[in-house]
Amino acid sequence: MNWKAFWNNKVEGLQVGRVLKGQAMSDELMQRIASRIVIQLQLQPTDSLLDICCGNGHLSKLLLPHVKEIFGVDFSESLITSAQEIATENLHFVLGDATQFSLNQKFDKVLLYFSFQYFESYAIGKLVLQNLLKHAKPGAIILIGDVPNQDQFFTYYNGPRKWWQWLKQELKNSNDMGKFWSKQELLNLCNELGVKGEVVPQEPWQPYAHYRFDLLIYS
Fold it and tell me: pLDDT grade, residue 1 (50/70/90)?
């Protein structure tokens, strides 16, 4: 799947890619998701936050009142251009690939939300986590949020129509769901990188809780 081309064609009013039944999620729901992230990352007014795969920056903007500074990184030129329209003196957006971007700064907290599925192999996932850890201060908290759960694959692909859709997309290399990760895979990555990982179930009100989970990493 050519993810760069896919995301370059997705610029939406609310957080890019966040839809329910074909409609962009309401700002109220996005605010509730942001409030949950604030709790999970234990955000403090003095924190610097790194938001990887930030898209058009809508979620970053919702988190800004809770921290001192945010740097958002995304590899899509069109999404970063859109995000830069809402940039401020303490909300910055940078073009970069999650596997290899380099900022001359380390952060108190790191967020990668609704995007880990687009790293479609164990090896690429490891490169991403390694790079996030390079940008994390000692004792930082990293949240890998909204990860499709391999154990719930057939909860999402829950009938002949979706099975057929999945097969056609796989044959055309156009499956826009990306990889369903197992919890153990992510915990194994954490073990290999020498950090503690904690799988966190999503709360029932969260829009994709029936087939997704979160992962907290403590550096």
Answer: low
SS3 109: strand
Q: Which domain holds residue 91?
A: 3-7+25-218
Residue 17 lies in a domain: no
Q: For all residues of the chain together, what is the average pLDDT? A: 90
Count of structural domains within the chain: 1
CA-nearest of 161, 141, 88, 152 to 117 is: 152
Give the Cα separation of 10 and 6 in Å (integer): 7
Is 14 within the bounds of a domain? Answer: no
- Residues in the chain, total: 219
Residue 45, domain CATH:
3.40.50.150
Q: pLDDT by residue (tens digit) across 177-192?
A: 889 999 999 999 999 9
- Identity (one letter) of the amino acid at 106? K
- Residue 59: name the closest of 8, 113, 22, 99 by CA: 113
